[in-house]
Structure formats: C-alpha cells, structure tokens
C-alpha cells in the first residue's frame, strides 16, 4: 500500500487530536470549529491523505431511514438534512469555485420481505412512519405493480422508502467537511499515530511515525477499521475489526425501466442503478476479520453468489458483465453492528467514534456533531446518542438493530 510522505505537525501541543481524517474525523473537526471557532487548537492525523483505501472512498455512499431503532432513524434524518443543504452550508469555504453538490439520488431503498417476516417488517414501517419517515409496506401484488421487473413469488411483500433515501457523493461530503475544517483553522497532517502516553487516567501525548510527540488535551479515535489499533495504544479494547466487502459495477443487456430503488434481496445481496450501469454487493461467504492491509478482490463472489441472487430476484438480469470492482473495509462492531460514541469512563479524555459497521458515512453528520457536543459541553445537546456509549461493551449489552445489511 503506497503511503504519501509523512509531515510533522506545526505545534508541540493541541487541545484536540483526532486520529483519522476521513468522513467521521472530518465531520467531527468541522462541528468542533462551528462550536469553538478558532478558540481551540485541533490536529487531524491521517495516515493516507489520498484516501485511496479509506472506507469513505470505498463505500457505496447510500443513506436510509429504514432502521428498527428510533435513534438510527433520527440520525439518518439529520444526515438527509445535511445532504440537502450541503452546497449552501459549504459555500463560504469555496470562494473561487462552486461548493460540492452531493448529487443525491432519491430513489429509496426496497427491502424484500419473506412471508415469515411480514409482521416484523410492518412494525418497523409503523415505527419509521411515526418518526416522520416516508416508508410504505407493499404486499406482493402492489409491489409487482410498482416494480414489474421484480420477482415477488417468494416474497411476503416489501418495505420501500418512497422519499428521503438514496445515494450520494461520499467524497464530496468528506472533502467538504475537510475543507471547511481546514479553512477554520484545523491542521491536517499526513502522519500515523504510533503510540499514546497516559498519566493519571488521561492521554497526555501522542507519538507520531515521524518521531514527534505532541501534547494532547482530548484524543478522538476516528480511525475507522483501525480503531482497535488506536484503542490498544491506550490499553483499551473494543470489538471492532476490518471486514471485507466486495463491490461490483456491471452492465445488463436488459435495462430496468423506471426509477429503480436500492433493492435489498432476502439473500442480503443489494443492487441499485449507477448511471446506465448497476452497483451490487453482499455479505461475502466466510465473513470475518481481515488484515488491515488486505484489499485483495474475490471475483468469484459475483459469479458464485451475487449473480444467482440477482437473476432470481430480477429475471431481466440474465446477461450481465462486470465493468469494475473493488474491495473496501467495514469497521465492523462485532458486538452489535452499531457505533461506539463517547468518552471512556477511566481514560477520561479518550473519545470513541468507531464501529459503525457500514453506516459511518450516512451517520457521520450526526456523529461528528455529537462528538463535538460531548467535547465542548460534556453532554449531548441535540440527538441523545447515549445508547452508543462505550460502557455497553464491557457489560456485553448489545444495542440491537434489526435492519443490518
């Protein structure tokens, strides 16, 4: 893996050091500057400023409100608010060029539902609608009428997000947050954190690959799939590890008419349009923790597992040709697939922003704001993300979310 040349920091001490400068770290940096202005010194340490292997760059860049837990629905609703207003929000930081339009494709998600899962699916839809989401449950007949290319013979129905779900430009969001943070005085450096020094239950300094040691008031772990590496430097442990996900972009000899949503099959395979092409992926066979630098592609996943599932669900997908593919990493929380957000109770200035298990991009606006609130105010001011607290980890008390892809 090629790493850009590392650079040294400009100071010997910072109020806040953020480990990881992709979308979670940059959102946090942005929200901190919104709260503090230039009143705090903030350093973001990013080991790969090309972001070539970041989960942000390699994600499928989608957002949904179809969750089983109210807080996850509300987190996504704030994400939608940010996506819709992103260009206007970022305009002050783009003096000589247009601010990024995130190109939101509001096609929705369509969750296919087995006959046995209808009651639970209807309950989730009722919950989502009670919170203001636009999800509807469609029985097989209406489902076929709306999406005539879908095989509904083995389905009990489907839940469809008719508004405020879809996909968008992941790097546009990350680069916007990053640019706004830098314009507001946040320092970004190409470097890697190699160690943390602790005293009296606090992180007092951060050691860098270039040999410098910088003093630290608050340490934010936004290291994505490498989150456990950073936690271990403070003698801590979280059940977060990189899990590989393979994405394939393919052409179909038969077009799909109409406004195709992101279809989530019973098998776990998903597919959505990507311009004239289609993007697909799944939970791969033998899913487990991967090495941090393992981005090897398994092309057989498409032929052996994904294509059969696609062809069954969408019979028009009988003649497909893969155009491109890539491997990305989920920062997978093996306890409950939900994020870990908050200070450690013993290492009191160590902040977790980890383990989002594929939801980090869509949750980054709310998570960055929440982390900044905890740092600045000592408590959540907007959305209460206390169910994501670290304390549930040693208690082995999962914060469960049924709608995990």
TrEMBL record:
Keywords: Oxidoreductase. This is FAD-dependent oxidoreductase. It is an enzyme of class 1 (oxidoreductase). Its EC number is 1.-.-.-. The keyword Lyase does not apply. It comes from Mesorhizobium abyssinicae. The keyword Oxidoreductase applies. Residues 15-374 form the FAD dependent oxidoreductase domain. GO terms for molecular function: oxidoreductase activity. It comes from the Bacteria. The lineage of its organism: Bacteria, Pseudomonadati, Pseudomonadota, Alphaproteobacteria, Hyphomicrobiales.
């Amino acid at each position: 893996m090629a790493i850009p040349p590392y650079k040294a920091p400009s100071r010997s001490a910072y109020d806040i050091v953020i480990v990881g400068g992709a979308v979670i770290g940059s959102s946090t940096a942005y929200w901190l500057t919104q709260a503090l202005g230039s009143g705090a010194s903030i350093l973001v340490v990013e080991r790969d400023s090309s972001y070539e292997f970041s989960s942000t760059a390699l994600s499928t860049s989608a957002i949904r409100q179809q969750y089983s837990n109210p807080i996850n629905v509300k987190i996504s609703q704030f994400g939608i608010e940010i996506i819709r207003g992103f260009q206007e929000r970022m305009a002050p930081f783009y003096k000589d060029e247009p601010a990024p339009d995130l190109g939101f494709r509001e096609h929705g998600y369509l969750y296919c539902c087995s006959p046995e899962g209808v009651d639970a699916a209807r309950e989730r839809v009722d919950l989502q609608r009670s919170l203001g989401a636009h999800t509807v449950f469609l029985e097989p007949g209406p489902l076929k009428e709306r999406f005539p290319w879908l095989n509904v013979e083995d389905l009990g129905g489907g839940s469809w997000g008719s508004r405020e779900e879809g996909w968008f430009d992941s790097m546009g969001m990350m680069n916007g947050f990053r640019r706004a943070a830098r314009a507001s005085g946040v320092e970004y450096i190409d470097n890697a954190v190699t160690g943390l020094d602790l005293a009296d239950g606090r992180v007092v300094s951060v050691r860098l690959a270039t040999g410098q040691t910088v003093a630290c008031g608050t340490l934010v772990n936004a290291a994505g799939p490498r989150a456990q590496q950073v936690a271990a430097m403070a003698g801590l442990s979280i059940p977060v590890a990189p899990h590989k996900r393979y994405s394939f972009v393919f052409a179909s000899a038969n077009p799909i008419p109409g406004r195709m949503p992101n279809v989530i099959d019973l098998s776990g395979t998903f597919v959505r349009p990507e311009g004239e092409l289609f993007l697909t992926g799944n939970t791969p066979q033998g899913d487990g923790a991967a090495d941090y630098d393992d981005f090897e592609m398994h092309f057989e996943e498409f032929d052996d597992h994904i294509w059969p599932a696609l062809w069954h669900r969408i019979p028009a997908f009988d003649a497909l040709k893969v155009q491109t593919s890539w491997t990305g990493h989920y920062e997978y929380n093996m306890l409950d697939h939900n994020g870990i957000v908050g200070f450690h109770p013993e290492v009191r200035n160590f902040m977790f922003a980890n383990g989002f298990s594929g939801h980090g991009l869509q949750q980054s606006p709310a998570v960055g704001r929440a982390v900044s609130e905890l740092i600045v105010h000592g408590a959540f001011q907007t959305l209460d993300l206390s169910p994501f607290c670290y304390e549930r980890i040693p208690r082995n008390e999962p914060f469960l979310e049924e709608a995990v892809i």
